[in-house]
Amino acid sequence: MRPRVTAAVLAAALTPLALTLSAPGAHAATAAAPYDFNGDGRIDLAIGAPGATVAGKAKAGAVSVVYGSTSGPKSSTRTLLTQDTAGMPGAAEADDAFGSALASADLNTDGYADLLIGTPGEDGSDTNDGTVTIVWGSTSGLSGARSLFSFFSTDYDRYGQSLAAGDFDNDGDLDVAVGSTGPVTLSLVAGPLTKTGPHNGGSGSRNDSWSTSYGITHVSSGDITGDGHPRVVLHGRTAGTDDATTALADLEIGNYNDWLQDLPAGYVSAVGDIDKDGYADIAVGNDRDTSADPAGALGGKVTVVHGGPGGRDTSRTPLVLTQDTAGVPGAAEKGDRFGSDVSLGDINGDGFADLAIGTAGENSAAGAVTVLYGSASGLTTKGATSYTQNTAGVPGGSEKGDRFGERVTLTDHTGDRRADLSVSAPGENAGDGAVWSLRSTTTGPTATGSVSFGPGTTGISTAGTPGYGTALNS
């Protein structure tokens, strides 16, 4: 294992970017929830299209932000972001892949959530050096930006391929965890992070048993130990293979490898308290068949690991779910990709986190989404439901290659304190991509009144294959 490399010596003041920043209106200093960019109590929807063409530059990438309303995401109130947007650092270039990863937190605690955007294809000191952009929230939405500091640019590539935000070093300020490839595969950029202030140091590390060529491919986080300090779930590949590997880490520790707990191997994860016991649980998705990954399953699987005061609660057997599990809709078939994405949120308002599971390979990659509900005894398959584009009330129709369910997110877009179900299908319309949002009710998501929109509706070019919805709120 390689020890963590600190970058405190690089914490000197950085010349602020010359940006025009809209002054926030009067607002309480209470930190906003992630993705509530205008502080109105409704979660907004950020949609990454890293394959989007911008000013003729193929795969430069773009992000649409559709603001929440009492009726859900409202595509008529939106912000389009590219590296050519006024006030954004850099410039749109071919293959930058702006919008490959997204994360959010109220980094400067002004009452408006801020957006972090990963651009792993950005060229810097070398090809595909990568960069991360912070776009600031305000009473009118997102406005103004600066680059997140990059401490070890000569020691990694694809900086920003995965992102998470939280007080990971437990000092009271919000930090950013950034995944990359190369000798340094995970960076911690320490807070506080402000519009014009200095950067405050950071660190970088790697686990030598993990592949440096894949690096940290996905990051999620939450209060798994119940002490108010978030831990992070890290995803990568085993060195010398492309098999998934997953672990729980505490970034407060000088070398996080000294406190690293193995988790069931998978490619994505979500964190939330399913049984309302005060410890967040971890849902890990592995959508590969065993022929492709020994830790997979026929058609894919999701494993739920229970949290506890020591991290992973080893006294409780993890729950393994496939489409052959009793009560789960459908049947496990090769290539279904059950677990292509996972999200945890309280859909019915009962205080227990519920689970949405993407199955992007279902029916020749037309795709599907399954919803299961939390309870005092944990996740239950009672009342489990499945949604496709052929579900009554869901706009459109299922077609081969749509990949409906490639990304899923459970977030409260309406402000009713219930999580709505938003789903992307990056393969829709030959790679244009599209997003759907279904309203929550006390009995689960309803297709009645659901909305759908694609890149053209929110100002993104459909030239090439933008892959709208490749990234959603995490």
Largest beta-sheet details? 5 strands, antiparallel
* Annotation, overall tally of beta strands: 31
What is the quaternary state of this protein? single chain
How much of the residues is beta strand, in percent?
Answer: 35-45%
- The CATH class of the largest domain is Mainly Beta
Query: How many domains in all?
Result: 2
Q: What is the approximate shape? A: globular
The class by helix and strand makeup works out as: mainly beta
Low-confidence spans: 1-28
The CATH H-level homologous superfamily of the largest domain: Integrin alpha, N-terminal
CATH architectural group of the largest domain: 7 Propeller
GO molecular function: hydrolase activity
Region (Disordered): 190-210, 414-474
Signal peptide: 1-28
Protein name: Putative transmembrane protein
Q: Can you put this structure into words, describing what you see?
A:
With 474 residues, the chain is an all-beta fold. It has two domains: 31-266, Methylamine Dehydrogenase, Chain H (7 Propeller), CATH 2.130.10.130; 270-456, 7 Propeller (Methylamine Dehydrogenase, Chain H). The chain has helices at 362-365, 428-431, and strands spanning 2-6, 45-49, 62-66, 78-81, 101-105, 114-119, 131-135, 145-147, 157-166, 175-181, 186-189, 202-206, 218-222, 231-237, 244-249, 260-263, 268-272, 281-286, 301-305, 307-308, 311-312, 319-321, 338-345, 354-359, 368-373, 380-387, 407-411, 420-425, 434-441, 444-453, 471-472. The strands form eight sheets. Strands 1-12-11-10-9 form a five-stranded antiparallel sheet, with no helix packed on it. A hairpin with a 2-residue loop joins strand 20 and strand 21. The longest helix is centred in the last third of the chain and has 4 residues, at 362-365. It is globular and about 55 Å long. The relative contact order is 0.13.
